[in-house]
Design goal:
Largest sheet: none
Structural class: mainly alpha
Strand content: under 5%
Radius of gyration: 15 Å
Low-confidence stretches: none
Order of helices and strands: HHHHH
Mean pLDDT: 87
Number of strands: 0
Number of helices: 5
Number of domains: 1
Length: 110
Amino acid sequence: MLRSITFIRFVHSVIFWFLTGVLALLLYEVIADRITSLTWIAVALFTLEGIVLLVSGWKCPLTAYAERLGSDHGQVTDAFLPKWLADRVFVIYGGLFAVAVLLLAIRLWG
């Protein structure tokens, strides 16, 4: 199963949608000034994701793995997002995460 491109793309999609939900939750909590343990878990998960991307050369390891298995491209976001958006997911999500952390800092020190 771990050598199936379809399975890898499925796992990649699940992780993508999970992290999308985590980012939405984080943004909601800091905008609503409702800082909870979920806020900190979200920050930790996104920080961990950033470390994984940094270590792997700013490319998701699952994308690289799917490509090694023979996929033309391992990117999964292009399956459900317009190409121009899929190509900018890291930039957009990184920007939203930075805004969330900035708002979190303002909430904590304001």
